What does this fold into?
Amino acid sequence: MSENRPQWTHEPDLALRRVGGSVVWANDELFAERENLIKPGPAQFQPWSFGHKGQIYDGWETRRRRSEGCDQAVVRLGLPGVVSGVVVDTAFFTGNYPPFASVEGLSVDGYPSPEELAALEWTQLVPKSPLNGDSENFFEVASQRRWTHVRLTIHPDGGVARFRVHGTPVADPRWLDPASLDLAALENGARITDCSNMFYSSPSNLISPGFAAVMGEGWETARRRDDGNDWVTVRLAGAGIPRLAELDTTHFKGNAPGWACLTGRRGDGEWFEVLPRTRLQPDTRHRFLVPEPRELTDLRLDIYPDGGMARLRLWGALTDDGRTTLHRRFTDST
It folds into this structure.
């Protein structure tokens, strides 16, 4: 990632279609569909590609307003959580980007309709702020509340290529079984704390929901030219005792690691072995029973020497401390 990007852009995109996000409503999408806002990857552009309504854009574009008002799109977050910042990306929109944008948030249970959402009280996350065309526009968010929906308003009209909502997922403990869950899952509250290399893709992909559809939806490092190895550390959803580890190299064929091992620790204690160094196969979903289950709060995956992994799972049970952490994280943000 560019060093010019804010640090919070390293956090997961809570709105991404890949993690379950959805653009549930927009008041206008005549030129380009609202669903493009949360597509993975950067926007694409092909000059002189005209459809029946004009130049085709990989983004959301509304018609030119001839009356007072503004245009809006509502996004249901795939991973409800605390928002650290948003990116309003106007890539390839030059003479047709909005001059201003604002963002609001909402936290609600269930699956309300667009009409029901419109009737609720929204909270300002980003005030009306100027935008640059054909640019990523970064806006930090100070709120520590948990949000389930965000609303993007463009003033008065125009086109936005991508809308990224970076932050920390906060799981609702009412929907989790503390006796059996993926302790390393992003949607359960786990997060990446550090990694040796993320040249090709983010390590947060490792703990994202679902299976990777392509190689680019995993974590892949640059080729090493030394005697070291690559690694990533995960703060688990809460203190727990694992029983099953899953190391998934699906889609990684000529670039899967040759071996991997797992270590863990409780708090700031010493690291101990969870899974010994084990040979891996390319394009394979490996599952291993944990030989000697012990309580841990942090997990480290070492791959040898480098390469790519699609997913990392660690199934087990929360301890009493882990349950307390999970509940406190939820109640402190609601």
